[in-house]
Amino acid sequence: MLSIYICEDNPIQLNHYRTIVENIILMEELDMKIQAAVTNPDELLTIAKQTQQNQENGGAFYLLDIDLNANKDGFDVAQAIREFDSRGFIAFITTHSEMAMLTFKYQVEAMDFILKDDIWSIGTHIRSCLEVAKKRYITYSQVPMLAFKTGDQTIYIEQDRIQYIATSSTPHKVTVVTENSITEFYGSLKKCSEVLPQNFIRCHKAYIVNVNHITSVDRKTFAITFANNHTCFASTRGITRVLRAIKMMN
Amino acid sequence: MTFFEFSYLAFGVLDLYIVLICPILDFLSNKKKVITAIILVVSSILTRCFFPVLSTYIILILLFTLIFFFTGKKLIAVCLSLFNYLLSIVLSYFTLFVMEHLFKITEVEALVDYYIPYYIFLTILFVTSSYAIRIIYSSAIDKHLILPKSTSALLLIYLAICAILFIYNYSYEAALGFPQEVVRVNTILFLIFFLFTSIFIVIMMYILRRDAKLQAQNVQYESLQRYTEQVEELYQNIRGFKHDYINILSTMQLYMEQEDWVNLKTYFNTEILPTGATFQDSSQTLGQLSNLQIPELKSILYNKLVKAIELGLKVQLEIRKPITKIAVKNVDIARVIGIYLDNAIEALLELDSECPRQLSVALIDMKDSVVIIIQNNCKELSLNLHKLGTLSYTTKGKNRGMGLYLAAKTLRSYRNIQKETTYENHTFTQTLKIFNC
Questions:
Q1: Does B213 share its domain with B289?
Q2: Most B-contacting residue of A108, A121, A180 (CB-CB within 10 A), to test interface
Q3: Would you say residue B267 lies in a domain?
Q4: What is the pLDDT of residues A220-234, one digit of tens each?
Q5: What pLDDT digit, counting tens, does each position of A198-221 carry?
Q6: Are residues B212 and B289 in the same domain?
Q7: Contact residues on chain B for A116, CB-CB shorter than 8 A
Q8: What is the predicted pLDDT for the residue at B399?
Q9: Is B316 an interface residue toward A (CB < 8 Å)?
Q10: Do B23 and B165 share a domain, yes or no?
Q11: Interface pTM, i.e. ipTM
């Protein structure tokens, strides 16, 4: 079940959103419940903290106004939420001029922004948010992740999406390659291979490959190719290990 | 061929390579270094056999032409090797001069009897001088200014004339059989001439650098001025809105007092709702630049974003909290961001005007780092993300792709930067996380 928390300083708007959400839950028969709909951010935080710390209460969906006319704004609230609930869904409801999409997505992993400016489409927008949250909540909890600590932030990458991991051109960094992203992290291949499952193989001093993603192996040039033409290389011993693993899988 | 002749030739070729090619090694790929070496050896042997008189001239002309084309027609590279060539002549004369005074060895003796220690000493000197010129060029000149073509051409002509005079003098002296008198005169002549040349070049570089600095300051000043104007315009906009706001309130009040709900509704829909659009204007977003207190970065962001707005792109800038410091050289980060923004704008312009053409930039101040995100829509990308930033890998056609290569090269020298590149659903995102040191 998903618990829903709403925070908006204007009581009329707060009521409006509450009615919208209640209607959607009723009509779509969603397994969700409004846990709190308040004007005071501190109140929301206390309730949410109490409820969400108990794992049995399921996930959470937060709908936050940004300009709250209080000691905190919606963004501060989101940051506070992230301290006790790293996987909850946060959507902001705000005016265009306050929106900072990239910032919020990056810092508190905001899932969406609902614009107050388009008065007429607020309802449909909230509905689609709830549906996405529901879908993701069901799959989310089972996907294995690879965690990287970078400074005071921890970034998670789905293990299944990783094509390969390489040492970076700058020391003490590794580069994680998926089909459509390349990301650098502080870390070592050794530490990665310790936590990764069997389908990841250290095929070279500088590479760990995910056998599930390999599209071709060239025995002459020792090149391993993935989707999107991403290529890495294996050592002589590494390539036999990779080929054996591929054989075992089939 | 006797052993003497052979070693004479070998030392000559080796020294020529050191003197001419070593100062410009940074310009040449490994393949080209080897090719020049082979051409040098072959041409030296051939010319010695067939045109012994003109051999020096032919080899020099051949090598300088090679350098010119191998470095991508860079005049400055030719200037560097020419300068080092002149320096090498002066150095060898100076060595002879010292030998004569300390050990009482004449030039003829040095060249015939003691030629091995003499040439070994010279080779060491040349390696040092080549290395020094390479370092001086890369640290003092290359980073700070781009020589205009006309200046480097003039410099080249000047150095070439010097070289011709030097060589002429030298061969004249050789024809006379190296009389001590002429050696002494030549040494003094070359030294003075060379000193003047060096002073002239140093002064020229100084003036050019000062000019470049002034010009950069001017550009920054101009963009600051444009920025101020924009801010003033924003302020005027808001003042106008404040004024309208009072009017709107009183009109609404009138309708309400008369309980004319139908007219109030139409008035709200036609007059009030559209005012929201004033605040969605792209230029409004630039006001956030006031939170950025790094002049170089501010000026480049301002210039590129204004350009994007003028080109009709939707621009969103997010700087929610003041940013005063980034743990990267300001010039470097400005250069990298400039390249990223140029690429983003170019990609957006390739889109049809019906597609959303949104450029978003965010600068986020975290506790331990500053994060810079640049995001743009783009066409379906079929390129290999991993190869972006390797030299001349590009979707833009021949002879392009320098930008991302330069950016990657600049970033590589920093250990405290984490880079992330993603492409998903027609959206391209570059993220730089710069940790505070």
A1: no
A2: A180
A3: no
A4: 888 898 887 888 888
A5: 889 998 888 999 988 898 888 888
A6: no
A7: none
A8: 47
A9: yes
A10: yes
A11: 0.81
